[in-house]
Amino acid sequence: MKTAAVLAYAALAITAASAVDIPVEHIQQFVLGKASIAKELAQWKDSVAGQVAKKNGYYKEEQPVDAVLNDNHLKRFFLTKLSIAEAEKANPEATFSINTPFTLMTDEEFAQYVKRSSATVDGLNALAAANITTVTIDQPQDNSRKLATTLDWTTSGCVAGVKDQGQCGSCWAFSSVGALESANCLKTGALELFSDQQVTSCDPKSGGCNGGATSYALQYVKSKGSICTADSYPYTSGDGTTGTCNTSSCTAKTLSISSITSVSGTEAALISAIAKQPVAVAVAAGNNAWKQYSGGVLSSCETTDLDHAVLAVGYDTTSFKLKNQWGTWWGDGGYIKLKRNGANSACSVVNPYSVYPNIA
Questions:
Q1: 152 FRET partner, CA 20 to 30 A, in 21, 41, 288, 314?
Q2: Which residue ranges make up each domain of the chain?
Q3: Is 73 noted as a catalytic residue in this protein?
């Protein structure tokens, strides 16, 4: 498995303009079904998912309608339907839909979109050094607590609503801020929304829209001793621009982080951590299963490289529940469930890069 010090949702300007080809064995199917495909495509473009895709630059539209471009869109739509069929075979407990913003991307383009920020040797060494010197390691099992067999923090009032990072590679910031929001709420009894933009623009060790690390983000807030509220420093990097750090006029919330816990790479340790509070986790998301996921439990991802960061908010006897930040029009209202299977849990979710803050 390739472990990534830099985890990002890539800000690649996919316009769905490059030409694509239909596999030879499916050409007849495409030609015969072209009329119905065109109808479905038009409905998708008018849907919320289609409008979000257009707004975010995931495809382009020309007026008057360009025949060549429109045919390319038809081919892309058809390829996605083929990809959904493959994902369904590999994931019998999950559902997939064309109603996501990524439908006119090919699987390869989506993978590049998610994986734009890649790890470097220096980055991995820096993260390892940070973990050794400043982050404690959770034990695989905590025998002092009897863990619930099922837990969902979204029912506690301490998980913020689903957000949207847009075209910015700031998944690391969103998952870290989400972990902070929940930890603070569990400590104080009140859910306060914190600034994803501050962490994206101001964390000196991360790369803004070009990727970052959840542990670095939490260390940044720990060193500051506070974080801006979301209202006073709203998110503006959805267009893919990191922005200049400016906290001079924000409303700062005092936040005393006593320590940051790095969860050891076992399923038992991750369950134990989530039982305490929501946890920022790394996953392998640059694949067709994540691209068109709409519900159920994902049991198989065709990739294993860690390329995305999300917030683990629950579990049951068979799955982990994660909160993504691709908007509510993706997945199950913005959430996804991954199959539990020890070290072989779906999408590499069990790994040594899960972290959470401890609020004093």
A1: 288
A2: 24-112, 117-359
A3: no
